[in-house]
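Recall the central idea of this unit: under ordinary conditions, the amino acid sequence of a chain determines the structure it adopts. In this exercise we apply that idea directly, starting from the sequence alone.
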Amino acid sequence: MSDICIALCTCPDNEIAEKIAREVVSQKLAACVNIFDNIRSVYRWENQLVCDQEVQLVIKTCQKQVTALYDVIALIHPYDVPEWLVLDGISASNSYFDWMKSSLR
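Accordingly, the structure predicted from this sequence is:
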């Protein structure tokens, strides 16, 4: 099994999302970041029900980069508690996996 994983992180707006995406790809911590804008998030924060417009990052990386990736995001991200979900056990075509490996440190 490969060590490919997907990390999910929401952002307050496109400017922050693109700043994070550019930084983690530039540092070769992510092979690719998809940015989905105009999503609606409903959650509880400080005992209040919140409904916010957000931007979702889908970050393609490998397991060995997850800690460094999170560290960079935590420095840039404005939220007190950024969403950080890592999905393991991802499979990919051999050619996509090879491209990912060549795009990461």
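The mean pLDDT is 96.
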